Amino acid sequence: MVRPPPSPAFIQYLDDELLRAPLLFDQVVEGTVDQLRRGLAALGSGDRSASSDLIKGLTTHRGRLAQIYTNSLRERAAEERARESTPAPAAPKPATGRPMKLALVEEDEVAIDVQLSHAIEYVKSHAEHELRELRSYVAALVGDLDVSTDHNPFRPEAHARALWAAAQALPTSRGWQMHFMRHATPSLAAVLRQSYAAATSRLEAMGVEPASYRTVIMSTGSRRSAGVETTYTPDLYRMRETMPAPLDDGAPLRYEGQHGAARREDWADIARQAPNRLDRQAIELVSRLFEAIVTDERVPPDVILLISRLHGPAMRLTLRDSGVLDQQSHPLWRFIHLVTYEAEMAPDKLDPERRRLLRLAQQLIDQIAADSDQRPTIYRRAVQAVEDFLRQRLQRRLTAAATQIGALQKLEHQLLDGGDGGPDTLGGMVDLPVMDTVPADILAEAVDPDAPTPPSATAATAWLASLDVGTWVRLYLGGRWVHSQLLWTGDRNDVWLFGDGASDATWAVRRGALLRLHAASLAKTLTMRSLLGRAALKVQQQVAVQGQR
Question: DSSP letter at 392?
Fold first, then answer.
């Protein structure tokens, strides 16, 4: 599909924002310098001198820093302009058989990611309304009436990274560069809030009519969820009692055969096989649950097509096995959840492993649908087949990474046996002789080794201990959220290797970096979504509304 070229109004919007970027940066610096000056009196002599040097650097090099800031934004604008001008690309196919680059994620890199994440979230929370309004206007500029993508290249992420690019040009230590970022964040949020509001007013004055944002789809990793994630499932046995019983006098035959599932007459035949009213109510409940599942927008479309084919077999299964209402413990729901979860962990539709998974699921569903004797056993076999595939898939990835794992094991021993490890402070980049140039709040934990372990550190250590090879985790690495699978841990638990779910990329992360990420809520174990739970809650609400009529 070829996109139309960017509209002149969109190009003008980009140019206008870039022209205003230097002034915006000046306002951020002014607010930051003012805050730093107010805090000088509370600092010790060493920190006061370093803070004064930081203020001097900001004022002396303001023009050059503003240029770096603007250039960073200009690069993001060029990327967005190019993306809007080219055909929508297919997801890249993971490369195979090529050597993997060995890179070790240290604490210093994680500390930067943590600070950037905090800055981005701070801006988002303070300018949420302005961001939403501007998003709808920019979507109108590019013709995206559903506001399915945020086309604004000047999002908080772009400004935070531009600010960090400028901070790195300051003639001071890395610790004080991060100190500047921390103190500049409130000023950045205040300035951007005004900037976003002003941009919206300018677009409105140009006659731009905002696209509807009733169905705004938030990007992956957004702090705002499109809905409540839950592992809670209402008691399906009690819900069954609230269902209408098909074929009763006055009870509508409501099933409409959506998404290619059983036809209306097939469903009626299934209902007629159940003389017991409770059984017919159970069939109605299972039917509604499937309708809710296959209309869940958070489930990948190709997975929905597979799940929908289980609609008819599941209703026939309900006649034979009342355990279908045993919530997530039943193999029917376990199979659906497992396939959906693993497909979401590998979102690239061209990924050969994802294709193998869905091809296996399709074969299993074909066998299930063709079986006239619907029993839990056939679903247990399906679950077992998927679990066997997942173990084989993990083994294939471990085999592909064998050379990398061997190199990492040697590196771990070198680091811990006095090689290139360095002190465990701000990622090894700050050594002992220059610690007096680092802000005290950054090294507060390092200066008191006898202090009790904070709860966050204890929780992070327990989290690491809970991880097993094959576990999926969500990490904030390199300025973005990634779904990754734990592939290997070093003999001495200092180096951990993770594999990206969306590509063949890997990350070797040191223990200290993982602890820091978890303490900052930037690392967590992923849990399987409860499709059944969400569906049951939706059905429960529908029945309650119908009961009020």
Answer: H
DSSP letter (8 states) at residue 488: E
Q: pLDDT digit string (tens) for 442-477? A: 434 333 444 455 566 788 899 999 999 999 999 988
CA distance 349 to 94: 10
Indicate the domain borders of the chain.
8-96+112-205, 236-400, 404-427+453-525
The helix/strand/coil state of 518 is helix
Strand, helix or coil for residue 510: strand
**Which pTM was predicted?**
0.71
Tell the CATH topology of 404-427+453-525.
Answer: SH3 type barrels. (2.30.30)
CA dist., res. 347 & res. 344, Å (int): 5
Q: How many residues does the chain have?
A: 549
**Among residues 59, 67, 58, 55, which one has the least CA distance to residue 23?**
67
Contact 181, 119 (CB under 8 A): yes
Q: What are phi and psi of 416, to 5 degrees?
A: -85, -15
3-state SS, residue 484: strand
pLDDT of residue 444: 40
Nearest-angstrom CA–CA distance, 361 and 309: 11
Residue 243: HSE in the Cβ half-sphere, 13 Å Cα cutoff = 26
Q: Rg of the Cα trace of the chain?
A: 28
